Amino acid sequence: MKMENVIRILAGCMMLISVALGHFVSEWWLLLGVFVGLNLIQSAFTGFCPAENILRKLGVGKAGGACCCSSSSVS
User: Fold this and answer.
1) Domain spans of the chain, in order of start
2) I want to staple 33 with a disulfide (CB 3.0 to 4.6 A). Which of 6, 18, 41, 70 is the partner?
3) pLDDT at residue 8 above 90?
4) Cβ distance 74 to 13 under 8 Å?
5) Mean pLDDT across the chain, nearest whole number?
6) In whole angstroms, what is the distance from residue 73 CA to residue 9 CA?
7) What is the pLDDT of residues 22-74, one digit of tens each?
């Protein structure tokens, strides 16, 4: 699986977890969703994606499937 897909899955899961915890536990958990959204916007403008760096160090995703660069290969 490409790194871009892994990042999207991670961001989507974090948003769903944030909404569920915000509903059932405390409204303060909605700040997690705000943080994820701001991080996605930031990575679109700067090309720096902390989640990508962490996942790459853990060996997740294929090499060359960067989530935050504009050049993507079409299979």
Assistant:
1) 3-57
2) 18
3) yes
4) no
5) 85
6) 19
7) 999 999 999 999 999 999 999 999 999 999 999 999 988 765 545 555 444 44
Joined tokens for residue 22: 């915000």
Residue 2: strand pairing partners: 62
> Do 61 and 43 touch, CB atoms closer than 8 A?
no
Tokens of 48: 């720096």
| DSSP labels, 15-74 | HHHHHHHHHHT-GGGHHHHHHHHHHHHHHHHH---HHHHHHHHTT-SBTT--SS-S----
How far apart, in whole angstroms, are the C-alpha atoms of residue 73 and residue 16? 29
> Tokens for 42?
């930031």
